[in-house]
Amino acid sequence: MAEEGAAAGGATAEKVVHTYPLIRHCDMSEEMRIEAMELSVTACEKFSQNNELAARMVKETMDKKFGPAFHVVVGESYGFEITYECTTICYMYFGGNQAVCIWKCS
Fold this sequence. Notes:
This protein is of the alpha+beta class. It has three helices and four strands; from the N terminus they run αβααβββ. The protein has a four-stranded antiparallel sheet with strand order 1-3-4-2, with helices on one face.
């Protein structure tokens, strides 16, 4: 009974984990954006403990489908400043704080 009163009376901060990709910035074409989102979700779920393998999977698939020179970074708590071809960047979050950045630079 005391636990119920404490929970109801005090404001608790709950962490919300998104199970869908949250796009922060993307100027890719619709087809490329959808492919990048689906690949990122699949890779992050498949290689949840290894960001390097997740990034490699996304890069190799994007290179095969849209041509070479894609770069992918998967991880938490990083910053970046990059040069990229117009209409080829996508920066998104997946699973709360897992960030994925995909861009093409040839």
